[in-house]
Amino acid sequence: MSLASHPRHRVLALLWLVAMAALAWHQWQLWRNPSFSTDVTELLPHQPDPQLEQATERLVAAATRQWVVLVGAADWERSMQAAAVALAQLDPGRARLQDAAGDALPTGLLAPLQRARGALLTPQSRDWLRTASSADIGQRALQNLLQPIGDGFSSWREDPLGLWSDWLRERAQWSALRPRDGWLWIAAGGTDWIALPFTETDNAFSGWSRGENSRRLAAARAAVAALGGDVRVLAAGAVLQAEAAAQRARWEVTVIGTGSLLAVILLTFLTFGSLRPILLVTLSLAIGCAAALSVTQLVFGEVHLLTTVFGASLVGVAEDYGIHYFAARQGKPVAERWEQLRQISPGLWLALATSGIAYLALGLAPFPGIRQIAVFSCVGLLAAFLTVLCWFPWLDRKPLRVTAFATRFASTLDKWPRWPRGRMGVVLAVAGIAVLAGGLAQLRSVDDVRTLQNAPPQLMAEQIEVGRILGLASPAQVYLVSGADSDELLRNEEALTARLAPLATAGTIGGYQALSDWVPSAGTQRANAALVMHANREAWRALAAATGERIDIEASAPPLLTTAELAPVAQGLPAISEWRDAEGRHFSLVMLQAVTRASLPALAQAAAQLPGVRFIDNTARYSQLLSRYRVRLSALLLVGLAAVALVLQWRYGRRGWRAWLPTLLGGLFTLACFGWTGVPMQLFVVLALMLLLGMGIDYGIFMQEHPGERSVWLAVAIAGISTLLAFGLLALSTTPALRAFGLAMLIGETSIWLLTPVFRAESLHS
Amino acid sequence: MAAATNAVQGAEAATEAVLARLHQPAVLRGQFVQSRQIQGFRRPVESSGDFVVARNRGLVWHTLKPFESTLSVNRERLRVTNGSGGTGTTLDARREPMLRTLNDILQSVVIADVAALERSFTLQAKAVGAEGWEMALQPKDAALRARFSAITLAGDAHVQNVLLQEASGDVTTVRFLQQQEDTQLTDAEAGKLQ
Hints:
Number of strands of chain B: 11
Radius of gyration of chain A: 34 Å
Structural class of chain A: alpha+beta
Number of domains of chain B: 1
CATH class of chain B: Mainly Beta
Strand order of the largest sheet of chain A: 3-4-5-2-6
Strand order of the largest sheet of chain B: 6-5-4-3-2-1-11-10-9-8-7
Oligomer: heterodimer
Helix content of chain A: 55-70%
Low-confidence stretches of chain A: 1-5, 203-207
């Protein structure tokens, strides 16, 4: 009967069925080869700065393929034993282990350098040669002759002053690792560490979502621990962090998703006492989440893990529509269900629209991470809503009785306090304003990109310790140097390193790595060669005077060393590689070691007024970015608040404030709580406020649409509790930003939910 | 298999025999005459002076002829100073860890510290005559082979002759004279090894 009487509904249901078939097909494709992004920087806005982007890409590309494990004991024999045990677990075939034999310098690098050695000088050698007298030079050369052994790098005849070995020694400092008994060794703090550096092949990240490397690492740790004693294992690398982040995110999605779902099921069961509402509400949620994931993937190409964690809390929001439907249906004749749906749908549409406005406002900011979350949430809500609208009356054909729980719950509305009139109301308002103002006055904000990371603290600590032991250059602060051609680039670098060298000597920074340390500019090479030729002649003369021995070598400048000669071996080593942009300008990075917060002003100063040199402080850059967007979104939030007020004014006239004020107060109360407890304000708290605007208003809308209607209050209450649970669970997340978000949602939702009935209109029923 | 085992046992026995003939004082002083044949030189470079070595503490190699120059090595650094006492060059083992190995080798060679040498070299030792011995050292790992092709020691109660063959082709021969044993360093010597 009902089938025949609603042809329009039938068309809608069929259309939605077609859409769901397409969704199912896409989901099947998606989960066959799931791939999620973990890179925090992908969430951040792109800068209209191609130079910077290229530089960042190169840093990331080099960092993502490499990871390192350190195995260390107080005793070298034990270190070797433990390293062998660890390696057997990590890489039994030694397919990924970097070559540990031979020199500290990358293989293949030495040959082109050796040809140019007469033009390569350390800054110290250069300074000494510039001022040394003939006697100084002669004495140093003869002294070298008297040592029981040579320097091992070149013969006295060709390099009587050992300048080449000095230069090589200086270059070898770029890695603190030294070969020892077939291992790469470094001693630090009384421990003999063995480094096991791994390079992943081209498809480095193919295995990370399965946690391949983390599993191998855990096995290695266990095997080393089984040896007993004081052997330590440290690991560092972007791959490991990505794996750990993925693992955590997966766990959080499971906990938050399952937790919210269970809460929805329990509340639905208590309220409606039947299996059907549970199944249908769960269906609307499943469709909502699947559609959200599919559309996000289609729009953005790749879904970020943070979005999925965030999305898990969507379960607690998208169930509202289904619950409203069943609350309206409860205790009414089955045949009236179309009519019931027709009655509540304006309110549902309006609720969806205000949520939509909130999300759209979020999406206005060109912030990929937030846009993803906005698209994800919008689509999820819309799909859940359409499922209710198109399918529920078809699938729900049996009567629904009113449960005792529902009756009892709904009756709480009658006893709910209202804002008192008269003097009491004024006193309360003044007290409330004092609490809010006091909290807001103490509110401070933090904009730190690290709040978006969720790698375990232990792994982060190990990363830092490994960086310290190995003296690794940090990708957080670099200089981007450029020039019209290779030689101008090198000259610009040399101007910079001349300023950095004193900082390194003074210990302000640990050191620096620059391409021009390996390939000096043509001018420097010519000047060096002149100094070296002069010094060698002096040395040979001193030898002849002392021993009568004559050396007949034609002193001549070596061929000019170019960056092109280093290029084949420099791949993957950002500190010694050069690249060109579309306009043909040459670029390189100067990397820094052991940068501290205190050294940042000096580092920024070092780039001042140097042509083609930019100091890039990525940490500060990202923080500024977050700060800028926090301010910008706060402004959008105010605009959204005004827009919603206008919509409410349009629909409800003078009663509009009753739906609006609880949300405003709830938002202010959330911020005040943050202020009183010292939790800092950050971008993600603004996002939470934005969503509160979207959802909190819903409660007001439902209460306004059907004043005093108990079934509406029931739906609002159930929806509110499940939303609370979902975001409360998000407050458990290990990602600081999501935790702050969850906390803001928790406080905000609770206060809005409690306040909305306080400002309800006098109903006809009471 | 059995032959190999016998050979190992034989080598160990020979090393033991050499050790039995060798004195192992805490401190040894003496004089040296060094001759370095450097690639491309017609004549070797001769030098002479005195030395002191303290087991596990370091070596002071004090050249007097043709002019004064002091090389002092311990585990942490290598320092060369000229006659007037001004510091010439210093290499720090913290920056150049290979230096530890080289410094260990330098001081171990002078007193034939077998235990220390065996860490870096394979030893072939044999007793010679009633009191003498000879020892051939082959570097174990690639990094050392890049520096030395072979080292040969000969002596009795003390090392008398050293032949250092470097991978570069340079060859150093050292003859030791008038060795004297002691139990501790003088303050001046200890100062040079600080």
